[in-house]
Write a structure and sequence with these properties.
This protein folds into two domains: about 1-85, no CATH class; about 90-164, no CATH class. The strands form four sheets. Strands 1-4-3-2 form a four-stranded mixed sheet. It is mostly beta strands and about 160 residues long. The protein contains two helices and 13 strands; from the N terminus they run E-E-E-E-E-E-E-H-E-E-E-E-E-E-H.
């Protein structure tokens, strides 16, 4: 197989697969390229749409309108790669949110365990994705997702209402 040409691939299907070392590669027609990176080009509200396939140098070789445009095996590989790249813990319970001087201290349960984090400017660091979903960013730049405020337990919603 040849490497993908330097210009962006525009025709046919792209296949995503891992080589023997576990590195993600892309194949299209008579060309292959690896390693490749998958980059979300739109906000988190479209996690499986408009995915840029790029070389390790950052050159875009394809733009996937939707992961559903891939074969089922490539979809699995793409989702694994995107999950790895965009790992965002989901907040499942808010234990407390309190203010200490000009800092906000959050104690939460997430999909990756219990976390305590601080933020300086509350309303600058809570981003609404839609009426139920929010991304919370701590002062270190780490992001946490609250996928649906309505599904949180009553105590968590009570804590949330302190800040919203």
């Amino acid at each position: 197989m040849n490497s993908l040409p330097p210009n962006r691939h525009k025709s046919g299907k792209i296949l995503l697969l891992r080589n023997r070392e576990g590195i993600l590669e892309a194949e299209a027609a008579d060309y292959s390229h690896g390693p490749v990176q998958l980059i979300c080009t739109f906000p988190f509200s479209y996690p499986e749409q408009f995915i840029s396939v790029r070389t390790s140098d950052g050159e875009e070789i394809a733009l996937l309108p939707n992961l559903l445009s891939l074969d089922s095996f490539s979809q699995i590989e793409a989702r694994l790669e995107l999950d790895r790249r965009y790992m965002i813990p989901r907040i499942s319970r808010i234990i407390s949110i309190r203010r200490k001087k000009n800092q906000w201290i959050w104690i939460v349960n997430t999909t990756y365990g219990d976390v305590t984090f601080w933020m300086d400017h509350l309303h600058e660091n809570v981003s609404e994705i839609n009426e139920c979903c929010f991304i919370v960013t701590d002062r270190e730049g780490r992001r946490y997702e609250i996928p649906d405020i309505g599904t949180l337990d009553p105590h968590s919603r009570s804590e949330w209402n302190k800040v919203k």
